[in-house]
Amino acid sequence: MAGKVAMRSAKDRLRYTISFEILLMAVLVPVGAAFFDKPLSDIGLLGAFLAVKAMLLNLLYNWIFDRADARAGRVSSDRSPLGRLLHAGGFEATLLITSLPVYIWWLNLGLLQALATDLSVTSFVVVYTYGFTLAYDRLFPVAAAEPGRP
């Protein structure tokens, strides 16, 4: 059996999640308000709701993914490009499933319009997630586990 693999702390994951969502909203809210011709406050509330939902899902999803990495003997900040794509794509698929009804209701869209909106946002966010997580891992790498410490 391989030795203990260092994992991100809950505090580190919280920093990741909050900084991820703040930067993402700073980009998406003004763009969404202009595209849907809605006040910033309307899109901002939608964005805040979706961000809180995403943050909660993010914490759970990353915890599960990190544990899977650890069980496989990998450190999360050392994921391969394929591992990063699977991580980002899986998370965005989870968000799509849980966000589609919100877009339909909040923006009064039909199913296909909501799906197109969600897929457009998701496509941007997949690229953003890859870049943000790569930058975060470089700025805040996971320290190797010390001998005798979990």
Structural overview:
There is one protein chain. The chain is mainly α. It has one domain. Helix content is 77%, strand content 0%. The protein is built from 4 helices and no strands. α1 (10-36) runs antiparallel to α2 (40-71), α1 (10-36) crosses α4 and α2 packs antiparallel against α3. It is elongated and about 55 Å long. The model has no long low-confidence stretch (mean pLDDT 87). Keywords: Membrane, Transmembrane, Transmembrane helix. InterPro entries: BTP_bacteria, PACE. Pfam families: BTP.
* Largest sheet: number of strands, sense, barrel closure: none
Give the helix tally. 4
Number of strands: 0
What helical percentage do the residues reach?
over 70%
Series of H and E elements = HHHH
Approximately what portion of the residues adopt beta-strand conformation?
Answer: under 5%
Low-confidence stretches: none
Mean of residue pLDDT values: 87
Backbone shape: elongated
The helix/strand class is mainly alpha
N→C terminal distance: 15 Å
Work out the count of structural domains: 1
Radius of gyration, whole Å: 17 Å
Features:
transmembrane, mainly alpha, 4 helices, BTP_bacteria, 150 residues
Q: Can you give me a brief rundown of this structure?
A:
The protein has 150 residues and is an all-alpha fold. Helices cover 77% and strands 0% of the residues.
